[in-house]
Design brief:
The chain is of the alpha+beta class. The protein has 4 helices and 21 strands. Helices cover about 15% and strands about 30% of the residues. The strands form 4 sheets. The chain has a 7-stranded antiparallel β-sheet with strand order 7-6-9-4-1-12-11, with no helix packed on it. The mean pLDDT is about 95.
Amino acid sequence: MNDNYFEIIRAGINTTFQDEGRDNLYHIGIPFSGAMDIRNFYLANKLVNNILNTPIIEFAYQGPHIKFTGDKLNFAVTGDVVFKIKKNGIGIDGKCYESYQIENGDEIDIISTNKSVYGYLSIGADIDISYQWKSCSINTRAKIGSNDGNKLSEGQKFSLLNLNTNYNKKKINYINTKIENLRIIKGTNYDYFSQEGIQNFFGKQFIVSKLSDRMGMRLEGPKIENIVNTNIKSEGLIKGVIQVPADGNPIIMLSDHGTIGGYPKIGVVASVDYDRLVQISPGSKIKFKEIELSDAETLFKLYEMETQNLLSQI
């Protein structure tokens, strides 16, 4: 074990190592994976002077409680997260989007996300983990990535290399905005659905089911009627595509989605809305709004410009 390391006291819920993910492996059945909320991933790394694609810890709902052994180290938490820093047994409330220093024996206790799903813990160092297909990202369904494709577990230790000695305090004023109206581009099987089904899809609310994870988000609500065929020959899928199985309840494919599927596709979530989509917690209500492809492209360019502007402020 390296002189600088963390020990996991409590692993939390679905705590994994993530980076930007894997490129161009759909042909062998491997999705991109990577951080669910890419903007919060980038902001976390920038706050501790890391390269933007440095692996960090992603968690859902409840985060890890970890104890540090080693030299001085900086870290940051992004998302809508409640956490504490424990020094000599005394808990100090932490603030998101602000870097902190910890020393030997200190602990980071990430208690929960607040009316959202994913949060990010960045560390001012390289985590000593393995890569698979040029990425450390863990996909627990496929058992690929670092940590043998498994979530982090209680009692586990992970070493840190190349500690960043730039300890300048960094922070940014950033608010995670909520979204209810997801912008949608028509899918390849849009014409499979009845006029009433399409009106239900764009005109009524859906509730995010508890049966949602990094692979997909299941919705409950008005049924989307299929008038052609509820099953099709399996086709390629992409992140954000919305399939409608025979029961009429839409499923949005997320970062660890399967790469092929046989359910008709009514639409695709515009990339500009993806970060906020994944932060919608079970029980929340959402609606869909149709936009054109050209509008989606313009909106995503603006999103990228805004992200770069935020990073330049740190």
